[in-house]
Amino acid sequence: MKQVLQRPAQWIYAVLNRHGNLVPGQVKTDMEHLYPGGNKEELCRKYYVEKIQKSLMIILCGTMLALLMAVRAIRGQPLEKENMLRRGGVLDEGKEIILEGIYGDQKKEFRVYMEPIQLDPENMDEQYRAFTEKLPALILGNNLSLQEVKADLDLTDRYEEYPFQVEWKSSNTDVISGSGKVVPAEQEEEVMLQAMITYGENEWETGLWVNVPAREYTREEYQYRKTVQLLEEAEQNSREEEYWTLPTIVDEIEIKWQNPTKNNGFLVFIGICMIAILIFFMSDRDLHQELEKQRECMKREYPDIVHKLALYLGAGMTLQGAFHKIGSEYEQQRKAGREISPGYEHVLYTCRELKSGVPESQAYERFGRRAGVQEYIRLSTLMTQNLRKGSSSLLVRLHEEAERSLMQRIQTGRKLGEEASTKLLIPMVMMLGVVMVMVMLPAFTSMGM
Questions:
Q1: Are 268 and 62 in contact (CB under 8 A)?
Q2: What is the pLDDT of residues 128-187, one digit of tens each?
């Protein structure tokens, strides 16, 4: 995949860098210090092409993920079992669910409330409560619900399976009579039906609001409401069962059910693109942090380099010879498997410049400037002044420099140790809390608290 995106990344880099101002000066400087002797322009080009490849890879993966989410949203998620929904347990709460009904080549969305599994009716406290809960469905007749009453209601004095005597009163007898006759008005009307329920010496009173619409419904609206009614009936009739069986036929039309899936593909795509752009620009910060880590490593290596340089000069070697000796020893160790040391890499690069004919003073000046670290610049200045002025105190100055750099490294180590102890303070406090809980919990348990 990376090879496939290489050509597009190179093309994008060429377009963005037409005027040569894409790469910031800080990135160029960091590259020059990180890779001494390398072609700065080529290093920057490879670095930016790799950054663009990573961003394209992220955008491509995000696009594929967004497309998959879009396809899933279009197709919907199938139910766990065909035309059946799993209820929650007895202790669970009811919840509103969204369903999609497929009528041939059409889809319609339904919002219904699903109750959890309930206890058997024999365990209910009062028969009256069961009757009043069932009463709205008992009086519906051929209507879909009490909120959309178009046909006559079944207002009788007795209902099967219940021993209660019922007397009905209507707040608007012109719209709904006491016997259940419905006469729709020119405008939508709400009517209160009062039910006087008696059984032996017990009397109760309950009221039901009934809505009588003023207009006729289209076939599509009727089909939708009929489906809602069938869903509610099926939900109520299956409250003692684990699964709620959904209706499969509505007015002789087969219906298939599925869980609708919200299409968040576009938001995912936008988020992925933002992450890719963020990574593209944050890579420069990572590059600079890498340079800072390299410089810290160079500072730790500096006392060794200065000490070796003073040792070889004290043994009678020339400055250039001592420099070549340090570089050749490091090169042999690196071939034997030693890890790359950035400070010694700069020394080795300076040795190669000297072998290629670069004047010695110029090579030492480049050494300090290329390293970009204050200690190395100071060493470069000492060596350059020795060549120009012929100072005989170079060896003494190098010993002083080695001793000072060694003391500075010790102080840096102490500082890092103090910072580490501070960072460990929070985990130590957390561990102390865990230990206190482990010690105190058995004590409280034994006391019966």
A1: yes
A2: 787 888 888 888 888 888 888 888 888 888 887 777 788 989 888 888 888 888 887 767
Rounded to whole angstroms, how far apart are CA atoms 440 and 436? Answer: 6
Q: Are strands 256-259 and 95-103 parallel, antiparallel or unpaired?
A: antiparallel
Q: How is residue 412 written in tokens? A: 């840096």
Q: Which residues of 325-346 are buried (b: 16+ CB within 10 A; e: fewer)?
A: bbbeebbeeeeeeeeebbbbbb
Tell me the domain boundaries of the chain: 6-75+265-279, 119-215, 294-427
Strand order in the sheet with 106-114: 77-78, 256-259, 95-103, 106-114
Strands 84-86 and 243-245: antiparallel
What one-character-per-residue DSSP string does 265-324 give? HHHHHHHHHHHHHHHHHHHHHHHHHHHHHHHHHHHHHHHHHHHHHHHHHHTT--HHHHHH
- CA gyration radius for the chain? 43
Predicted TM-score (pTM) of this structure: 0.43
Cα 45 from Cα 14, distance rounded (Å): 9
